[in-house]
Amino acid sequence: MASTPALGLFGINFGPMADPAVMVTVAQAAEAAGFDSVWTGEHIVLPDPQAPPSPAAPETDFVDTAAALAYLAAATETIKLGSGIIILPQRQPAVLAKSLASVDHLSGGRLMFGLGVGYLEPEMTACSTPMEARGARADEYLQAMRLLWTTDAASFDGDFVQFASVTANPKPVQADLHTVVGGHSNAAARRAVATAHGWYGFMRDPETTAEDMERLRHAADHVERPAHLGPLEVSITPARHLDAEAHAQYSELGVDRLVLQPGRRATSADDIVAFVEANAPSQW
Questions:
Q1: Is the Cβ–Cβ distance between 92 and 162 less than 8 Å?
Q2: Using omega within 30 degrees of 0 as the cis cutoff, is the peptide bond preceding 49 cis?
Q3: Residues 6+ apart with CB under 8 A from 243
Q4: Domains located in the chain, CATH noted
């Protein structure tokens, strides 16, 4: 029998939820309603004027992920704090490792580190990051960050990252910081199976989710999964309004979490809180 997916809320740091008061009000409402997590989105810069494949207008406010999650850590008690997603190749890994360890420290171990390799060339260029080899860069950055999170007097000698005998404290509260890989490619599926606790698919309907699940199963047949990562946790942001039929379909497919987004019509705190309450776990 399929289990009922947990519910998360996407977009806690951008658009109307970039406002500090709205951000806190919505996160607290989600926590009270029984949502298990809130998730940021990320774009450090956006092309101006907007052009495909950019997903948002350049005037859209995006609060930095670590800043937003640290702010919410102080305003909430139990809800998990997810990055959905940090574009890892365009971040300096030692600096990001420090920021994320600090969020986990301040939140008492509630961080879920969602990462991806990026797709928006103007943003990558603005961050002095080449598009080529961004997957290999992300893999190496994650290895280096995990070393800093778990080891004192750490040394690393890679193609993109080098450091010798350095220590970063505080360490994350989570001894094995929960990590989630986003992306719909075969490479993303392999990366999730090989390196992460979870995989995150964005704007997926039940049909495309079925394809995603098959892609993950295929990756699991060909890529070794470290035992400490446990079963792969699958999170999905639905592509359309969630109704009872779609909820049942996602459940039958084995989705572990549905990360809902309020949509463009929700432009105020009241709108978003009403969405949260209408979609609370108790409703399903």
A1: no
A2: yes
A3: none
A4: 6-283 (3.20.20.30)
